[in-house]
Amino acid sequence: MELRQLRYVVAVVEHRHFRRAAQSLGMTQPSLSRQVGAVERELGTRLFERTARGVEPTAAGEVFAAHARRVLEQVEAGATEARRAARGQTGSLRLGFVGSALLELLPSLLARFRSSHPGVNLECRELSTGQSGAALLAGDIDLAICRGAPTGERAERLTAVPVSGDHLVAVCHRGHPFAGQPSVSLDQLRTQPLIATPAADEPATVRALRPLLDHARGVVHARDVHTAIGLAACGIGVGLLPSCARRLSRPETVVVEVDPPLRLPDLTMAFRTADNSPALGAFLSVTSAHCSGIAHRLTRLMPTEHQNGG
């Protein structure tokens, strides 16, 4: 028995007339009669009785039509959900991110994605750049926001797209000599104990800071921006942070520019190159619209159905 035959039976029950049911279905009355007759022969029972005005469903016809309606509704619901899933409107997306991504990029980007794709289950985990690459390759996350592109074994299987740039600033206690200066030089920073991220967590950032860290009076490691600022507030040292950390200023701390400016690794979006998940494609589409400066990089990576906003 085919789905179309279920539709034929339901139409006859609704119209109580073969000719009118056939017209609603866009077919001839003889064709409809043959199809309904085939269903009756398969079931081994009559579904309709002829009347002066048309037909009436038998008890078997009423029961069969009720079940046929439910089947057709379920099939239509399944088709709708399948189309939504193909457009990235349902499903799940697991995101790993460095803490500094929460300062500027992610709050507005995630709000925009959740608004346009409320049916996608979004799982978020804070991970260092070092952890993100391994998690992507292991299939533990689908997307990473990290500092610089992930490196290491099998990193060639990942696609990395810079989404925003940043530069170095120094964070110190309000009573520190640097606090009253408009900027500090690299030579001045080298005379201080510094607070920086561990190399295992943020290898690209530490490589950029190597000229400072190799000659500093000492280095205290802090895994996230909040810890670094907190240590600076305690007078432990001078924090080396991305400029977006200005959003986390505290009464006890001052943010000072570094002159000449030292560019830090870009905030980067990374994912498995072979991943054709519709939910990932939808997120890339939203990111492309949200971060207009990288739209041309992301558009060529997205499936066609997502290139106009999913």
From TrEMBL:
<keyword id="KW-0238">DNA-binding</keyword>
<keyword id="KW-0805">Transcription regulation</keyword>
<dbReference type="GO" id="GO:0032993">
    <property type="term" value="C:protein-DNA complex"/>
</dbReference>
<comment type="similarity">
    <text>Belongs to the LysR transcriptional regulatory family.</text>
</comment>
<dbReference type="InterPro" id="IPR000847">
    <property type="entry name" value="LysR_HTH_N"/>
</dbReference>
<dbReference type="InterPro" id="IPR036388">
    <property type="entry name" value="WH-like_DNA-bd_sf"/>
</dbReference>
<dbReference type="InterPro" id="IPR005119">
    <property type="entry name" value="LysR_subst-bd"/>
</dbReference>
<dbReference type="InterPro" id="IPR036390">
    <property type="entry name" value="WH_DNA-bd_sf"/>
</dbReference>
<keyword id="KW-0804">Transcription</keyword>
<dbReference type="GO" id="GO:0003700">
    <property type="term" value="F:DNA-binding transcription factor activity"/>
</dbReference>
<feature type="domain" description="HTH lysR-type">
    <location>
        <begin position="1"/>
        <end position="58"/>
    </location>
</feature>
<dbReference type="Pfam" id="PF00126">
    <property type="entry name" value="HTH_1"/>
</dbReference>
<dbReference type="GO" id="GO:0003677">
    <property type="term" value="F:DNA binding"/>
</dbReference>
<protein>
    <submittedName>
        <fullName>DNA-binding transcriptional regulator, LysR family</fullName>
    </submittedName>
</protein>
<dbReference type="Pfam" id="PF03466">
    <property type="entry name" value="LysR_substrate"/>
</dbReference>
